[in-house]
Amino acid sequence: MAEDAILGYLATAEEIPDSGQFATQHGLHHNDVVNVIKSLHGFRYIDAQDIKRESWVLTDEGKKYAADGSPEVQLFFAIPQQGSISKDELQKKLEPSVFKIGCSQAGRNKWVDMGKQVSRKVQHVEDKVKGLLIRVQNGEEIGKDDVNSLKARKLIVAQTWKGYSVRKGPNYAPKKKKVATDLTRENLQRGDWKELEFKEYNFNAKGPPAEAGHLHPLQKVKQQLTNIFLQMGFEEMPTNNFVESSFWNFDALFQPQQHPARDSHDTFFLEAPSTTRELPEDYVQLVKSVHESGGYGSRGYMYDWKREEANKNLLRTHTTAVSTRMLYDLAKQPFAPKRYFSIDRVFRNESVDRTHLAEFHQIEGLVCDRGLTLGDLIGVLNDFFSRLGMSKLRFKPAYNPYTEPSMEIFSYHEGLKKWVEIGNSGMFRPEMLLPMGFPEDVRVIAWGLSLERPTMILYGIDNIRDLFGHKVDLSLIKRNPLCRIGIN
Ligand code: PHE
């Protein structure tokens, strides 16, 4: 429509001086006219020159007054024709901002007497401001002084209007020819390709952006951490089971059955299948007895251990469940020292906020060897974390049911200028290792931390929902930079 209008008009006229006026005259949207002008210009049917105009538009406040009247007039009409009204009464009748602005403008116009009592000073007022605002809204010109006063009251703002003036171009025709964009089998069969006019190639057109996969920041940091573990001689554990039995997640870790973490408020239990199919029976008996009555120098927890509780399936709450299975397998073979690591997902029934989700990734490392000490653990942690760029570490005694001693790990954060907790660690208890069948002098040192925390720090993300889940902005995934751990 706009295309025919423009080309048709130029058949008899020299020029369309202003695309804005042209659009209004022809009942077209200016945007449509602009799009057609750009395209016709591209085919050189027309020549187009930019024109720019400053115009005025109403601010939100201006729009309100154009509809409801200026505050000073609203105030005026809230005052009785005869007599007076108390200032407090008057204030109650009006919106706070209308009252405040109305008082000062009506006072300046000498329309009202302002005191404790307010009364009209004139018979009649005219809402000049509203009138001017409506004219601006309709695109009419108003005087310079009026512009200045509306501008000073922030009721209008300047806006640059962009349009075109248009003349015939070298390829002008009153109607645009349809050009072919494809050479089809039908064109060849009919032979009409000889007459067809083909659209020229536009070698300057940008092609669509190439679609390709992009690594999520968590994947990048995970890869860097994997490299660090591999450089330190660690082997990766198979973590491809989100569903675990309570036995491997808790019982084998000497975590008592009445421990609060085993509550459904903290752990997601499975409805179907609700229980595990098989557990290594001999080992289950040993775990049961170490819970009930101890052994290996321990008194145990002294309660009735229930098999049904151990059978319950859950979404693993930590990757330490995997470490436990690995250690159990290792203990069955002739002893050889091992270093294992894993980085994978775990689930906790927690309330979600800016730093917590009900699922996250855990990084876990363990070293199993004869005669290891707490000093070895501290040494390995210093080595590991300094490779992550965190060389200032501090440790604080902590408690885990499966480690003794246990230590929280803190690192000095140069940016935040304070010590932040970065992980948890400890030496697995004999109550856990000896039932597996390890020789008595074998010790296992281990630590765990979240993958999300360092990733958020490295990528400057402060809300975990911007990193993981359905609210993640895909352009973040497409554009996030390489991960360069330790170089910051
Ligand atoms: N499993 C612990 C946690 O979930 C981390 C940890 C791993 C602690 C190994 C000590 C030893 O926080």
Automatic annotation (TrEMBL):
<dbReference type="GO" id="GO:0004826">
    <property type="term" value="F:phenylalanine-tRNA ligase activity"/>
</dbReference>
<keyword id="KW-0648">Protein biosynthesis</keyword>
<keyword id="KW-0547">Nucleotide-binding</keyword>
<dbReference type="InterPro" id="IPR045864">
    <property type="entry name" value="aa-tRNA-synth_II/BPL/LPL"/>
</dbReference>
<dbReference type="InterPro" id="IPR002319">
    <property type="entry name" value="Phenylalanyl-tRNA_Synthase"/>
</dbReference>
<comment type="subunit">
    <text>Tetramer of two alpha and two beta subunits.</text>
</comment>
<dbReference type="GO" id="GO:0006432">
    <property type="term" value="P:phenylalanyl-tRNA aminoacylation"/>
</dbReference>
<comment type="similarity">
    <text>Belongs to the class-II aminoacyl-tRNA synthetase family. Phe-tRNA synthetase alpha subunit type 2 subfamily.</text>
</comment>
<feature type="domain" description="Aminoacyl-transfer RNA synthetases class-II family profile">
    <location>
        <begin position="219"/>
        <end position="481"/>
    </location>
</feature>
<dbReference type="GO" id="GO:0005524">
    <property type="term" value="F:ATP binding"/>
</dbReference>
<protein>
    <recommendedName>
        <fullName>phenylalanine--tRNA ligase</fullName>
        <ecNumber>6.1.1.20</ecNumber>
    </recommendedName>
</protein>
<keyword id="KW-0436">Ligase</keyword>
<dbReference type="InterPro" id="IPR004529">
    <property type="entry name" value="Phe-tRNA-synth_IIc_asu"/>
</dbReference>
<dbReference type="InterPro" id="IPR040725">
    <property type="entry name" value="PheRS_DBD3"/>
</dbReference>
<dbReference type="GO" id="GO:0005829">
    <property type="term" value="C:cytosol"/>
</dbReference>
<keyword id="KW-0030">Aminoacyl-tRNA synthetase</keyword>
<dbReference type="GO" id="GO:0046872">
    <property type="term" value="F:metal ion binding"/>
</dbReference>
<dbReference type="Pfam" id="PF18553">
    <property type="entry name" value="PheRS_DBD3"/>
</dbReference>
<dbReference type="GO" id="GO:0000049">
    <property type="term" value="F:tRNA binding"/>
</dbReference>
<dbReference type="Pfam" id="PF01409">
    <property type="entry name" value="tRNA-synt_2d"/>
</dbReference>
<keyword id="KW-0067">ATP-binding</keyword>
<dbReference type="Pfam" id="PF18552">
    <property type="entry name" value="PheRS_DBD1"/>
</dbReference>
<keyword id="KW-0963">Cytoplasm</keyword>
<dbReference type="InterPro" id="IPR006195">
    <property type="entry name" value="aa-tRNA-synth_II"/>
</dbReference>
<dbReference type="InterPro" id="IPR040724">
    <property type="entry name" value="PheRS_DBD1"/>
</dbReference>
<dbReference type="GO" id="GO:0009328">
    <property type="term" value="C:phenylalanine-tRNA ligase complex"/>
</dbReference>
<keyword id="KW-0479">Metal-binding</keyword>
<keyword id="KW-0460">Magnesium</keyword>
